[in-house]
């Protein structure tokens, strides 16, 4: 019985260490996603994701600039569609051809982190 209790304690410690590490990695990934977004996406999409960035389309906000904080509108897009739009450009998913592909800038993990970051603009 003593061995079983000891084994259970070891399993709990390992699980806690893994959980702590995963939470730290996730937070680091979101911090990197925020930085990537601010540097390369916010110019059009805006720092708060409202589609009101200082880019060339600011004068008259076109429909293709999504308001990521509009939860009802964002539920129309799956994570896979957002991933593909970031990776292959807006036209790849039937959205604007103005959004360029990011596949030469971001790796797949960074794109997945950007999807999670963009999802965070919707506060329900």
Blueprint (SSEs and pairs):
Elements: H1 2-40, H2 42-45, H3 71-74, H4 79-88, H5 108-119
Query: Could you give the order of the helices and strands?
Result: HHHHH
Into how many domains do the coordinates divide? Answer: 1
The pLDDT mean sits at 78
* Secondary structure category: mainly alpha
Number of helices: 5
Quaternary organization: single chain
Give the C-alpha Rg.
Answer: 19 Å
Total strand segments: 0
CATH superfamily: Cytochrome c-like domain
Q: What is the CATH class name?
A: Mainly Alpha
How far apart lie the N and C ends?
48 Å
**Which architecture name does CATH use?**
Orthogonal Bundle
Shape: globular
CATH topology: Cytochrome Bc1 Complex, Chain D, domain 2
Strand content: under 5%
